[in-house]
Each structure stands twice: as structure tokens, then as C-alpha cells.
Amino acid sequence: MITHKEIGAKVLADFAEATQDIAIIEQRAKMDGRQMFMQLAPIPDKNKLTSK
């Protein structure tokens, strides 16, 4: 039984907010059994993509 999943969700939301200038959320926070996870990805740098 998970008793404080709202605390974990808040921690992940705060982390996503703190990194919003360098990362985007690919998958929102969700429970998988007893674990909660969220998937972030770096924001693609348009300058790097156009220079190749």
C-alpha cells in the first residue's frame, strides 16, 4: 500500500518545473507497482540540428 503518493507526485512535478528550460516531459508521473516515475527528455537544440 502506498500511503504518500501525492508527496512523490509533488516532488516529480517540482523537478519538472525546475528543469523546464532544459527538458520536456515525455511521460507524466505515473505509478508502476510501488514505484512512481516520470520521463524527461532534453529540449532539442535547433542550432545543432540546422548546422549538420
Automatic annotation (TrEMBL):
One MF annotation (Gene Ontology) recorded for this entry: translation initiation factor activity
Keywords from the named record: Initiation factor, Protein biosynthesis
Record carries keyword Transmembrane helix: no
Residues annotated as domain Translation initiation factor 3 C-terminal: 2-42
InterPro entries: T_IF-3_C_sf, Translation_initiation_fac_3_C
Cited Pfam families: IF3_C
Name used for this protein in its record: Translation initiation factor IF3
Primary gene name: infC
